[in-house]
């Protein structure tokens, strides 16, 4: 067990990332009973997290040793009390936080230790929906959804526009495309943010507590859009949330984190109805 | 006379004496105002409050070490105040072209002693004392320059002057084609010529001579312009008693040798 | 007496010779003559440099007495239409640079002025006549001063002066003359306050003569400002950059310029550069000084503006895969610009007003014209007129700043042209809270190595170069 030190970075020995094929085989054997995902013989996880560690200020250890696989098309819901490290893990996946140690592999490609340019390239494949929406307030809903396509994917204006309109219609905002964020409700803003992420066609969509900043009556709309996205597409989603209903109905797998590690994961009904870990049980009890 | 305050009495006695002396002198005619000399007001009781532009050596400047005003006019003011039974009080420097309006408006200072030529224009705004020193104009250029008064009268030439001075008037009238730059101080003008910013300065000859001797050795006077102008002390028109008192004191300074002593100190000999 | 007989005889001979020559002088071609050195007139155009006919001015005439002459009287004659009536004449006789005391009497009537000396002015003396309050002909034109003088041999003709250029009375001057004659104006001016600060004649003069100075002020600041904005932006980006060297340069530049008075910067540039043999046109130099000075303030405004953009904006742009420059130019700066418009406008107003300092180094801007006019008139009214010229520009801008500020505040509250959604207002409160908590989280997430520059946080966390 790693203890806290008062100064300097914590030095840890993390083994090198496993060989892709071997890792995939082990993950397959381990995860097949933990997820509703339709596993296919020989497939590799799209996200592989091995021994992920994150320390702030050199001594505040937020992630201790996170190991997790996410499969193509899988919906993974991450639960846990605040401070458990679930948001930090999500932010590490698209490198908004720089991992202190460990490995993150997307499609078997290591993404840690890359240059700024490579990081920007990797991030195209990792869409993110934020708790506070983070729409660009000087741009209309349409322009918010277009800008990543035109600037990053270098798509033509018309093509980007068509895609943006399609995605905005998909989230039920076809009539709001020329509104600027301040003129939209929080729920509408978050739906625009989802459309913005989806329009980039990332390999993985990351949701960082997407409904926590919303009033209860607006949460439903956003969850409906996410549900729709999960059930009707082949999108891979990692969702950090407190919405138990969503986790139980939509999640292929529920992951429970505490103290910077994954303490329990499994099929939603298993975790909710028969939690193996005492902390999980306590947490779920307090939520109910 | 019984109504006089102690201060006024002292002054009255001083000017009675001054009037006597003036009466003895050859100037004549001016003795009469001495009778009014007791009737004047001062901004600060017992003090002769003076203003000037303190960047006009050797007439007035600020001592580099102490920041106190010094110069010919400062010594004149001290002697003047002494002769009038007053203390002298110098206010901070202000731009030359604000001196006449300040004195005219009153309330701030009693007199402007500033190497100020007596002109009819100025006399429209304020009273000027009798002349206390003669002056002339000069054109100053960079040493070795081939400029003359003729070549300077050209649109391509820039003449620096101090705003509101007779030098500025002279340049306007005699170098009509040149571009004139009116600056706040003569120091700025000379520095500008030194650095090549301006082609020439027109200013009072005693000032240019002194400045070239003391600090601007790379400048030279190409023309000494006899204008025969005379410096006087500016006093508000509302205070004729003060003008009279000053004239009386100036006359006394001429006779008792104080003026000669001051001239000797600042110009090497009595003028 | 040290003179020998021969000496005496020579002197007598000389005197006879002189007499003979003097006699010859009665004939038009004169062998010697009182030399007219010059005749000039003081410009009497308020705030201008022309000599206007029909208005009082001062004629200065100088002549040198030649060898052997003894001048007792000088008469100046001006063309028809000129008038010496009501003038006062100052007669100065100079020997070299010293005043000689020769009493004189002056008689002036019509276009003739006669000065008679109590004792003859002898050779080498300079006669200087300053005639204050005389008029040239109304129609203007080149005026030649001619005349006669009397020496020991009789009346001689003066050589004509070089012509004095005069112009016809302008409508502006006529207007001022009519104001001069107006009793209401006279009553107004008799009030010390109104007469000193709001003299109608001077207001009229100032409004017409200050225009070029006002335009120069505007040109200087309008030309300087785009450069100031570009420079300011460059230094703002340098100040928040990750390079320690760039930051140091920016901090040095900004602090030196903000920490010293503009007045001093002007002096250094205007007097210092020419000493290094760098000669730049005064107006261009004015533009440069104003631009450089404003750029330091703008750099700080832009830096504060950039750093006021929430962290989430950087993260959102990063999560889309946008590069540093794309994030800066497409996301952060457009929002920054909207936020800083009021502050930048205020700074523009400051720069506009600061152009007045350029008058101290001879740039012919508004303040310079006002100072000139004041120094000529001894009256404060030109400064009041200058104040009005400054306010013409600054008041509308101040008003505009207020409107823009309100509009920005409005749009950030969620107002705007189409506020249909009732929930919008409540949501923006939630949003604000979310942003706050997010910022707090971020602050605690700062890396050790950057703790010494907390302001750098937006860049470091979102662009993982130090991975």
Write the layout of secondary structure elements.
The complex is a heterotrimer of chains A (288), B (271) and C (467).
Chain A: H1 20-31, E1 47-56, E2 60-70, E3 75-79, H2 86-93, E4 101-106, E5 109-110, H3 116-123, E6 126-129, H4 141-151, H5 157-170, H6 186-198, E7 204-208, H7 216-232, E8 236-240, H8 244-250, E9 253-258, E10 261-266, H9 268-273, H10 278-287
Parallel strand pairs in A: 3-8, 3-9, 6-7, 7-8
Antiparallel strand pairs in A: 1-2, 1-4, 4-5, 9-10
Helix pairs in contact in A: 4-5, 4-6, 5-6, 6-7
Chain B: H1 6-24, E1 47-51, E2 61-62, E3 69-70, H2 72-84, E4 87-90, H3 99-105, E5 111-117, H4 120-125, E6 127-128, E7 133-142, H5 149-152, E8 158-162, H6 166-174, E9 179-183, H7 186-194, E10 200-204, H8 205-214, E11 219-235, H9 240-256, H10 258-267
Parallel strand pairs in B: 1-4, 1-5, 8-9, 8-10
Antiparallel strand pairs in B: 2-3, 5-11, 6-11, 7-10, 7-11
Helix pairs in contact in B: 1-9, 2-9, 2-10
Chain C: H1 5-25, E1 35-41, E2 57-64, E3 70-77, E4 88-95, E5 98-100, E6 104-109, E7 112-122, E8 125-134, E9 141-143, E10 146-151, E11 154-157, E12 164-166, H2 171-181, H3 183-190, H4 192-197, H5 200-209, H6 211-239, H7 244-259, H8 262-275, H9 282-307, H10 311-319, H11 324-354, H12 366-377, H13 381-412, H14 423-444, H15 457-462
Antiparallel strand pairs in C: 1-2, 2-8, 3-7, 3-10, 4-5, 4-8, 6-7, 9-12, 10-11
Explain what the structure shows.
The complex is a heterotrimer of chains A (288), B (271) and C (467). Chain A is an alpha/beta fold and 288 residues long. Helices cover 37% and strands 21% of the residues of chain A. In chain B, the strands form two sheets. In chain B, strands 1, 4, 5, 6, 7, 8, 9, 10 and 11 form a nine-stranded mixed β-sheet that branches. Mean pLDDT of chain B is 84; it is low at 1-37. In chain C, β4 (88-95) and β5 (98-100) form a beta hairpin. Chain C is elongated. Chain B binds chain C through residues 95-98, 100-101, 104-105, 120-122, 125, 134, 136, 158, 160, 163-164, 168-169, 172-174, 176, 181-184, 188, 191-192, 194-198, 205, 224, 226-230, and chain C through 38, 40-43, 49, 58, 60, 88, 90, 92-94, 96-99, 126, 128, 132-133, 165, 192, 196, 270-272, 274-275, 277, 279, 282, 360-362, 368, 371-372, 374-376, 378-380.
């Amino acid at each position: 067990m790693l203890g806290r030190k008062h100064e300097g970075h914590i030095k840890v020995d993390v083994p090198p990332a496993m060989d892709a094929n071997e890792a995939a085989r082990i993950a397959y054997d381990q995860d097949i009973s933990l997820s509703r995902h339709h596993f296919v013989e020989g497939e590799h996880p799209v996200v592989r997290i091995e021994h992920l560690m994150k320390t702030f200020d050199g001594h505040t250890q937020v992630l201790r040793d996170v190991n997790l696989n996410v499969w193509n098309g899988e919906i993974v819901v991450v639960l846990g009390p605040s401070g458990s490290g679930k948001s930090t893990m999500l932010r590490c996946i698209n490198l908004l936080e720089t991992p202190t140690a460990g490995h993150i592999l997307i499609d078997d490609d290591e993404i840690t230790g890359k240059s700024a340019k490579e990081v920007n390239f990797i991030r195209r494949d990792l869409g993110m929906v934020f708790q506070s929406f983070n729409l660009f307030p000087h741009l209309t809903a349409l322009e918010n959804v277009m800008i990543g396509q035109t600037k990053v994917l270098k798509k033509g204006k018309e093509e980007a526009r068509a895609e943006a309109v399609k995605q905005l219609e998909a989230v039920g905002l076809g009539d709001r495309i020329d509104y600027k964020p301040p003129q939209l409700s929080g729920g509408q803003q978050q739906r625009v943010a989802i459309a913005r992420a989806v329009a980039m066609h990332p390999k993985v969509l990351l949701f960082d507590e997407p409904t926590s900043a919303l009033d209860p009556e607006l949460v439903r709309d956003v969850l409906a859009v996410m549900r729709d996205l999960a059930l009707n597409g082949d999108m891979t989603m990692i969702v950090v949330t407190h919405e138990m209903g969503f986790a139980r109905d939509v999640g292929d797998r529920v992951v429970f984190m505490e103290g910077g590690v994954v303490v329990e994961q499994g099929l939603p009904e298993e975790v909710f109805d028969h939690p193996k870990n005492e902390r999980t049980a306590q947490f779920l009890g307090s939520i109910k | 006379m019984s109504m006089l305050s102690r201060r006024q009495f002292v002054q009255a006695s001083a000017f009675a004496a001054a009037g006597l002396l003036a009466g003895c002198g050859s100037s004549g005619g001016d003795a009469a105002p001495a009778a009014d000399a007791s009737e004047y007001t001062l901004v600060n009781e017992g003090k002769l409050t003076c203003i000037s532009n303190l960047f006009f050596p050797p007439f007035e400047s600020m001592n580099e070490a102490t920041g106190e005003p010094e110069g010919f006019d400062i010594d004149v003011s001290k002697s003047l105040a002494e002769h009038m039974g007053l203390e002298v009080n110098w206010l901070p420097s202000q731009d030359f072209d604000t001196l006449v309006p300040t004195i005219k408006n009153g309330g701030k200072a009693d007199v402007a002693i500033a190497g100020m030529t007596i002109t009819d224009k100025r006399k429209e705004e304020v009273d000027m004392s009798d002349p206390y020193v003669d002056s002339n104009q000069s054109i100053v250029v960079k040493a070795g320059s081939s400029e003359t008064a003729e070549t300077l009268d050209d649109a391509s030439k820039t003449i620096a002057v101090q705003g509101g001075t007779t030098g500025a008037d002279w340049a306007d009238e005699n170098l009509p084609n040149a571009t004139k730059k009116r600056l706040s101080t003569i120091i700025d003008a000379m520095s500008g010529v030194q650095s090549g910013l301006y082609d020439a300065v027109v200013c009072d000859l005693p000032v240019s001579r002194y400045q070239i001797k003391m600090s601007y050795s790379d400048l030279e006077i190409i023309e000494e312009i006899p204008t025969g102008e005379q410096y006087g002390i500016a006093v508000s028109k509302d205070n004729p008693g003060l003008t009279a008192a000053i004239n009386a004191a100036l006359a006394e300074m001429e006779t008792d040798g104080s003026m000669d002593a001051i001239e000797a100190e600042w110009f090497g000999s009595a003028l | 007496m040290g003179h020998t007989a021969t000496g005496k005889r020579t002197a007598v001979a000389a005197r006879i010779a002189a007499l003979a020559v003097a006699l010859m002088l009665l004939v038009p071609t004169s062998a010697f003559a009182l030399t007219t050195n010059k005749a000039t007139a003081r410009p009497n155009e308020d705030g201008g440099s022309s000599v206007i006919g029909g208005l009082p001015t001062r004629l200065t005439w100088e002549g040198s007495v030649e060898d052997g002459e003894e001048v007792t009287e000088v008469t100046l004659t001006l063309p028809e239409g000129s008038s010496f009536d009501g003038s006062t004449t100052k007669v100065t006789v100079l020997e070299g640079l010293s005043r000689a005391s020769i009493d004189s009497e002056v008689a002036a009537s019509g276009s003739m002025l006669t000065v008679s000396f109590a004792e003859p002015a002898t050779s080498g003396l300079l006669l200087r006549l300053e005639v204050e309050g005389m008029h040239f002909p109304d129609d203007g034109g080149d005026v030649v001063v001619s005349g006669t003088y009397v020496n020991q041999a009789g009346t001689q003709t003066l050589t004509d002066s070089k012509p004095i250029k005069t112009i016809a009375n302008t409508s502006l001057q006529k207007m001022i003359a009519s104001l001069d004659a107006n009793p209401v104006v006279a009553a107004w001016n008799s009030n010390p306050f109104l007469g000193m600060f709001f003299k109608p004649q001077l207001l009229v003069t100032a409004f017409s003569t200050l225009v070029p100075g006002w335009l120069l002020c505007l040109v200087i600041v309008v030309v300087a400002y785009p450069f100031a904005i570009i420079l300011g932006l460059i230094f703002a980006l340098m100040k928040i950059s990750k390079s320690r060297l760039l930051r140091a340069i920016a901090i040095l530049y900004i602090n030196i310029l903000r920490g010293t008075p503009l007045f001093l910067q002007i002096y250094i540039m205007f007097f210092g550069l020419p000493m290094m043999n760098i000669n730049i046109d005064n107006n261009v130099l004015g533009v440069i000084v104003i631009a450089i000075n404003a750029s330091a303030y703008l750099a700080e405004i832009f830096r504060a503006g950039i750093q006021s953009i929430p962290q989430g904006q950087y993260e959102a742009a990063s999560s889309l895969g946008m590069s540093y420059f794309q994030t800066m130019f497409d996301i952060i700066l457009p929002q920054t610009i909207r936020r800083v418009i009021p502050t930048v406008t205020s700074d523009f107003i400051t720069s506009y007003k600061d152009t007045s300092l350029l008058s101290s180094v001879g740039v012919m801007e508004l303040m310079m014209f006002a100072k000139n006019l004041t120094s000529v008139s001894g009256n404060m009214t030109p400064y009041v007129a200058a104040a009005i010229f400054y306010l013409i520009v600054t008041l509308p801008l101040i008003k505009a700043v207020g409107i823009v500020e309100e509009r920005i505040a409005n749009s950030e509250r969620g107002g705007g042209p189409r506020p249909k959604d009732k929930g919008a207002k409540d949501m923006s409160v939630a949003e604000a809270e979310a942003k706050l908590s997010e910022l707090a989280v971020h602050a605690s997430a700062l890396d050790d190595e950057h703790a010494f520059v907390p302001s750098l946080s937006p860049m470091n966390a979102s662009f993982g170069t130090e991975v």
